[in-house]
Amino acid sequence: MSTIKDLRFSLFALIALLLSACGEDENKPVVKVPSHSVLKISQAANENIINMNQHIDFADVSQGVVSREWIFPEEGTILEGNPEDAQVRGVFPQVGEWEVTLHQEFENNAYVGTETTARETNVLDTTIIVTVMPAVQLQTIKANIVNLDGTLGDEVSMTPETPTEIPFGSVLRFTYTAEGNPTVVAGEFFGAELLEQSALDGTFDVKYVTLDATYDFAPVFTRPQPNSSDTLYVANFVKCVRSSVPLTLDKVVNDEDRKVNVIFSRGLNANSVNKEDFTVKITTAAGAILTPEVTAAAVNPQNESAVLLEIDGELIYTDDDVLVTYSGTELESQDAAIAPQFEDEELVHVEDDLLKASDYNYSFESSATSYVGGDPAWLGGFVPDILETSTAQATDGSSSLKISRGPFSGSGANASAISTYVAGAPHTFNFTENENNKLLMKYDVFVEANGGSPAAGSGGFETNVRIHLSNKGGDWQEAAHPFGSLDEDQWYTFENVISVNNPLDAFNLIIKVAHTGEETYVIYLDNIQLMRFYPRP
């Protein structure tokens, strides 16, 4: 009796165990790995542009990979690691452009990067272009006096046995050639003032402002990225002697301390400055008019051709309109030339330009930069009919970006997003946080054809252009600048303020044209400026 009961219990237990096991198999989740190609390149932020003998780390962090192979050129590069590994290192000892290719085979048709639609293949070949730059090396340099009419005068020796005498207040223009594409001239000028410079033209200007002073000359020619530099030193280069030309006003600007600087053509007699001879009028962005007292005036110790004005408890802000008047009769140069009077001279704001500081191709002069229309597609997938650099119009340098598209069609604005690349990577500029993270964006647009009135179904607004800071999350701060009703065959300057609420170390710019017009538009874009902006509190 007990034996039959034990057997019945054992059968029930066995059936329960089998049912439990079947349930576990049926409920066990199946993990499906997507086929998704994602690469990480250590120098991608620098557009894969490096110096000789530097290395780059290449990492394949893709999912669903069945096999891979890193393919390096047979000559000019060194592969460190197994070419079938997920991560390898390449060393580049020779100048030039080098193609590194990753061959991948996936389980299924593969997605690439941020694309939302899989490619129609499970085999991908991705090519990364690495640019290896030569070291910066100065090859030739000469100097000429700049005449009052802007033409070049006498050449000044770069290898003088004794200092070359030049008129006090002279500006010298230096013209140079260099290997390695230096873009910034800095260094030590021993009290002289470095003025404008153009890496494109290979020129920079230096102003010599102190009477009887002898100047050495030690410029540094620098390529910020990848960093390389070369230095020239000339001892006892020039000596300033008395000038026969009149003393003139050059400009009125703010300095980095947000104070007024009145700059003349040559060094000033410090004992001839009188604060009572200057007045300052400020019109704020809100329309308020301020006439603060000039509480102090003195020759700027950093620039002897400038009068530094202290105004009662006030600083100069970027959104101020500032007018300065000089009504005195005693201000003079160090060689006793009398300063001219002037009334309501407008202050020119001087702020750091992030694009120039980062060697960004802001004026479309570099042939290394490429432009892709309809990119990113979600921002504006309509590809322009014409997207090319052109010398037909320009405000800075000799080139601009020509953009054109035919009449509106469909519904909603025909938006064209345009991204900029160098060596296959986004063209970026550096950003550093400061006290307010505000920027003033300005750019020039030549309207050859404005596209006409808005077409039916287009949304009713004018064709417009805008430039985005990318990588800002949802905070794009679009500022559309309409040109659909502007007069044609004219240049216009558009500007807007950006608050960088999601700061990064680097950004790239995306141009966007939203076309709604019944006709073709043709514009030329040039001279993008992105300057620090300090609004009045």
TrEMBL record:
* Keyword annotations from UniProtKB, A to Z: Signal
The secretion signal range is 1-21
Q: Gene3D superfamilies annotated for this entry?
A: Galactose-binding domain-like
The name this protein goes by in its record? PKD domain-containing protein
